[in-house]
Design a protein that fits this description.
three-stranded parallel β-sheet; 3 helices; alpha/beta; 81 residues
């Protein structure tokens, strides 16, 4: 997908339960969805990730995923990877 000139939105559980259709209607072309943050701990998984993915797919909104990193050492980065 060529994203030149496209507008995207970053969404996560910090946004609560959101309407992807409203995002689409507002003119956004894609969403980047946080899947979690920090180390490989289940408590750091984003609890809205799967719901946000399903909503994007239902609305026909392309999406990508990211892990928010807090790594400050090589060991931290390896854990997060």
């Amino acid at each position: 997908m060529n994203l030149k000139g496209k507008k995207g939105v970053d969404i996560s559980s910090l946004n609560g339960s959101i309407s992807i259709q409203k995002i689409k209607d507002a003119g956004y072309d894609f969403a980047m969805i946080r899947c979690g943050y920090g180390s490989d701990l289940s408590v750091q998984d984003d609890n809205q990730f799967e719901s946000n993915v399903r909503k994007c797919e239902a609305a026909g909104v392309p999406w990508g995923a990211y892990l928010y990193s807090y790594a400050v050492t090589t060991a931290d980065a390896k854990s997060e990877a």
